[in-house]
Amino acid sequence: MGYESAWLSYKENHTLKIPWNGSKIYADxxxxxxxxxxxxxxxxxxxxxxxxxxxxxxxxxxxxxxKKEQDNALGEEGYKIQCRDxxxxxxxxxxxxxxxxxxxxxxxxxxxxxxxAEEKTEKPSAPLRMLNHWDNMDGSIERGYSGNSFFFEDxxxxxxxxxxxxxxxxxxxxxxxxxxxxxxxxDRATWLIDEVYQKxxxxxxxxxxxxxxxxFLSLNFAAPMELGNLDSADPCKEAVQQWWNDKMQELYTRxxxxxxxxxxxxxEGRPGPFTYGRTHADGANMLADAVAPYHGxxxxxxxxxxxQQDWRDRKTDRARSGYDNFRxxxxxxxxxxxxxxxxGPMDFQVREPVSxxxxxxxxxxxxxEVQIAQEYTGQQRHVCYLIPMxxxxxxxxxxxxxxxxTVEDIVTGKTMGNTNCGIAAVIxxxxxxxxxxxxxxxxxxxxFGRLCFNTSLSAEEIAKEWIVCTFGHDREVQExxxxxxMMSWKTYEKYTSPLGIxxxxxxxxHYGPNVDGYEYDRWGTYHRADHLGMGVCRGKKGTGYAQxxxxxxxxxxxxxxxCPEELLxxxxxxxxxxxxxxxxxxIQHIYDTHFEGAEEAAYMADLWDSLEGKIETKVFERVQKRxxxxxEHAKEWRDQxxxxxxxxxxxxxxxxxxxx
Amino acid sequence: MGYESAWLSYKENHTLKIPWNGSKIYADxxxxxxxxxxxxxxxxxxxxxxxxxxxxxxxxxxxxxxKKEQDNALGEEGYKIQCRDxxxxxxxxxxxxxxxxxxxxxxxxxxxxxxxAEEKTEKPSAPLRMLNHWDNMDGSIERGYSGNSFFFEDxxxxxxxxxxxxxxxxxxxxxxxxxxxxxxxxDRATWLIDEVYQKxxxxxxxxxxxxxxxxFLSLNFAAPMELGNLDSADPCKEAVQQWWNDKMQELYTRxxxxxxxxxxxxxEGRPGPFTYGRTHADGANMLADAVAPYHGxxxxxxxxxxxQQDWRDRKTDRARSGYDNFRxxxxxxxxxxxxxxxxGPMDFQVREPVSxxxxxxxxxxxxxEVQIAQEYTGQQRHVCYLIPMxxxxxxxxxxxxxxxxTVEDIVTGKTMGNTNCGIAAVIxxxxxxxxxxxxxxxxxxxxFGRLCFNTSLSAEEIAKEWIVCTFGHDREVQExxxxxxMMSWKTYEKYTSPLGIxxxxxxxxHYGPNVDGYEYDRWGTYHRADHLGMGVCRGKKGTGYAQxxxxxxxxxxxxxxxCPEELLxxxxxxxxxxxxxxxxxxIQHIYDTHFEGAEEAAYMADLWDSLEGKIETKVFERVQKRxxxxxEHAKEWRDQxxxxxxxxxxxxxxxxxxxx
Lengths: 660, 660
Known about the structure:
Two copies of one chain form a homodimer. Chain A is α/β, with parallel strands linked by helices. Chain A is 34% helix and 12% strand. Chain A has three domains: 6-122, 2-Layer Sandwich (Chitobiase, domain 2), CATH 3.30.379; 128-461, TIM Barrel; 495-536 and 573-649, Alpha-glucuronidase, C-terminal domain (Alpha-d-glucuronidase, C-terminal Domain), CATH 3.90.1330. In chain A, helix 1 (32-49) runs parallel beside helix 2. Chain A binds chain B through residues 311-312, 513-516, 520, 529-532, 636, 639-640, 643-644, 646-650, 660, and chain B through 311-312, 513-516, 520, 529-532, 639-640, 643-644, 646-650, 660.
């Protein structure tokens, strides 16, 4: 299947003033990543400026220079860009820094940003900047909305031109780690660590390495039983430890670029240390010890909760479970273990509070896990630019210490001075021609990488970059798409579930409105709406979840007056007549936001329609179709949610609009 | 896979007084059906009485005699049984009558009914007594809850010993027609009328014929396009008519026992005459003309409705659609067309009014379609003996004429004096060891056949017969199982959706509670519950559905006072505080019936448990497991329904029981 170049589709721009002299590139050292950097520069300069750049061994005659230089402040991944006297110089201590610097120069060409004589220095914010693919070996993708996997097909590993182009896209925004298989490791995927797949993995890993990306795999904790002949996977049994030690030695011999492993254990039916009465620390440390000799990392997911809950039970609270499970283990994990924590305590809803595990753990490495696959935020059929949400999460103060206490500080290593930390995203790619199903969803892939690399960039700056790289320099196109992206998350929030309560979706699919869809189910996801009001009491008199935060957050959430209103129903049951700070009642807020949200969805469709002729027809029509669906689907959301609450409360809309 | 004999598992009973002399059977004519009758008698007498019955050509020395005799009152399927002077004589005009008479004698042996010197005459009530299998050619069964198909596997037709034993079971209760494939005819099933499958169909058809059963097939209306090279399936095009004529000539040459075809057209996505601007009559008549030379029948389903409805629309009413679509065509159908009408206007809910098409059509052959697969009535995991429901339907007076106006009269031919009429059931069998998943569900298969054969039998009489044939003569076993069967439908109704409103099930699966499951969907199936009340207004001020009935039914349903209360919410929106004839409010009725229903489910489980040791262990445990599930599941139904309505109405339970 053919595919497109996304934001690396360079647009010819011969009016661009080339800031360097001559047409030669010089590199003072060579290696496969530098070679890739040079090739990328050649290709971009050729396509954008129409200039063929040759390679020279003579520094003096070069217009573009890649120079390796000892500079601990920059590190292996940071870089300096300077353009002086007709020479554009990229400097780094490592090959990866030179590659990132080269992609930065290309982006500057794409966006017509001026090259300055002053040194422009950049160093990635998050040490680990990872993509998690939930790709299955049969080629399907769990929660994938843009076609099938380009890593797997019929239980075979695919390594081809698309693998390279994927790596180019990822590297261009600074991604340095990729987990290629689903965290739910079943059937053939368990065998990914077996010999049978190592040849293909080797080839894939080499491509990744060229682009500065470490290959990671998701592991099946029960592998010693399923692959080995062991009758147990007990992490405290010597035979099990030995099996893993041997397995890792075998793997790392063949795959030296293996970054490590991602593990979902004792969660939603996956096996784990609980089976043997062991802790998550026991489980993670056993694996960590096995990979330590090879500098491998174990990324252990904290998405652990009771998924066999009784809806009648108002004591058990799924939101509590991450903290309840992991907080007692703080300090017990090895240095090369990283806990991967979802941004919120539930599961990628359009609005959640930040997980109290951030700031709750003081002596444990943590990664932030976000999801750009839009499982609950429109599944790449609705526009939902998520970078503003991720920024809110990063800026959240945990009060774990006096300063450097935000989620950003924690996952970038500023809080504890650690380097085994970072940010991971469940990625939204598939083998669709445009990689992400919805063309505008590519902004999330691009934006995620850019944000991890430089957390000080604003969501708007990132969006602008992406738009220009993808659609070029037409001002109207830029402004309108920027407006669409920047409004999209709030718009989606408006016409879906209100005030942080979440989960009003069709079970399993997680798409489309269904207010009671999860209300009487086993997943611990309830709104508790009755005739008088709605919401879950998570304060001291309720489940006590709010007390998992440090002060003053705990008190802020505990108190209905100080609880941020966008999370009101997450923390409090309030009557429909409860007055919000806007002066509106809660029920009127629901009606108003749902009417507004549906109108905004229609407005976005209109904005796009007005760009006809300014955007490549194929792309224009692809997006137009999705926006038309979003517009209709937003009405369905509006009407179902409003009707449900009107029928329950019988409180009429003050504005007398039609509610069914 | 092994399988059991269901109600044909004869129990040894040597204390039985054998009413005939000697051990010889005599038949005055021979044919394969008579041969089958003799074989069945030999087998039963051997297994029950321990006596080997030989065959004799000398009438005088026979103890059992099968005699063909001209008797138009009996017809080909009726029979007389008389036992006098040590000779048990079965008489009929046809071979089928002799087979049915022989099975009747066997049943009398099983139930220890006395053979009388008086002539016992029986003639089947319904001319067509059919089973509709929704079996797909890949082996799956649509709405099948007892394993896979025993007719198809991997797009192949299975003909083996089980085919014969299935035919024996069906014939033993008087079934004379079987549609072997799903009414949704897709993919390979379209090819069933092609040459490639005719050899296997021939073999199957011959087995069926031996047991007096005609083979029917479900047709794809678009077959001329999919199998032929035609670019249209327009029933008014000569080429299309010719294609079908040729096809039928080919088919009937090879399959002379073919009874005809069942057609689902222009329904739920199936193709039909509407595509060409033609009527159902045009479509049905074209096929009828093609099969007429071979005495074939076209059974045309009336399950036609808009399945892309907007839930906001309160004008369109799915319940109206059968009548609206077919009533204008009354009198336009050929003599060999039969309209097959579901018992209710919706779709096999636990409680529905009778379809107004019964009595609504005056000059059209009609078949009643019921479903014993329990799609919406517990899916053969809950006990739900449906014969009482079918009897209510049959007894319903339509007032289409002064007398002989019941549904029974219509489908047995008494109303119009026709013979192309009858009753069909969507059957509940699969390749499970016990045929029907739930052992007690076999009572519905048995009972359906018995009821069609003799509509004057009571549900209780039928249940008693089945229990003795299946479980033997233990009095406690008989009484307790009878109690379970007789209470089961009402019990199921109590803990599921109340007062005739239906549809509070999980979408697609149709199992388990989900009050809003279909409320905001496209299927035209709504309860319209709000804070004040619930129900659909189907009177003159509403959708007008009630007016499709003849008087006095129309007025009875129109008036909330005279509307039967079990259908109250089907016809009327009433407030939760509406007082029922019991003096209870509607909401209190919901609470009470749901508590009662769950208690009754628990009671049934207890009843069964008390039979331990009296029933074969394997069977006992199989049923015990399902009853335990039913008991728990009934609680889930109770709690979800009660909580939903409590949360909506906030009217407390008068008895202060726990509602969540």
